[in-house]
């Protein structure tokens, strides 16, 4: 144990005193004031009080500043006892600060030394693989996760499918998604983004629609991915026009569905008319439903009603129900009465 020293105030510098001093530093520190020098001074007590080193490591790693991350690395190297939290903190910090190769190397060191790891460890290392599109390492980690029954964890699964999607292995990403018993909003967002990255825009919008139908909250990342998918489909239609080929009915359904969910009224009108006038595609009930939804969501209820009346086939209960719901949202009582009347005629038992 280190010899105790007396400071200028006559207080012995025990490890516990260092611990209290560091706690005061972290409480009083501002985000814009580096703690590096103060932390390194306190590392003087490392031989006698391991919890202090753990606290310093987490504090330095949390800031994300390069100097602080270097400080965390020095503290980590000095530790004689490293807990799972210490390993995870250091690997996560390296990954978040663009030191993916070092993060992978640290994980290998962790394995060589026989240390146990958790789902959080695997997901952090997979994030490093995603940044480098390291497919080989990802597949090894996937196999290890399966062996240890960690592959069904939502964080591990989400990280896995992100690596596969970014590396162009969208089928593997889809398989991982399908295998997960639990999926978070991030999982759905990552899958939508993965399809967009691989230029599978229709699949991206189908996933976006599925997530919306399930009532999952759409974050900015998911919405931006869906918008990119819309733009990609629009570009696809233009390319096909230039090549003298026409988009399929399914492609138009995807485009119109996207326009409906994004509130792109003019774009929806444009592609609906393009489908009829230039590509000689006869709209089916799904195309009309997309347009009714688009007008209803955007408050253009009279246009939605007129389109239902102009359809070359009888409107279903779901169409009148959609219009009725839109009338309630936008306060159009007179059209709500008309929609409710038609709905009651089709489904009198549900009136």
Order of helices and strands: HHHHHHHHHHHHHHHHHHH
| Structure summary, number of beta strands | 0
Largest sheet: none
Helix share of residues?
over 70%
Radius of gyration: 29 Å
What is the count of helical runs?
19
Distance between the termini: 83 Å
Structure description:
The chain is an all-alpha fold. It has a domain at 1-24 and 34-82. It has helices at 15-28, 36-42, 50-63, 66-78, 84-96, 100-112, 119-132, 135-147, 154-166, 170-179, 185-197, 201-213, 220-242, 249-262, 265-277, 285-297, 301-310, 317-330, 333-346. α12 runs antiparallel to α13 and α13 runs antiparallel to α14 (249-262). The longest helix has 23 residues, at 220-242. 38% of the residues are buried. PPR repeats lie at residues 83-117, 184-218. This is Pentatricopeptide repeat-containing protein.
Please name the defining characteristics of this protein:
351 residues, mainly alpha, 19 helices, elongated, PPR_rpt, PPR_At4g14850-like_plant, Pentatricopeptide repeat-containing protein
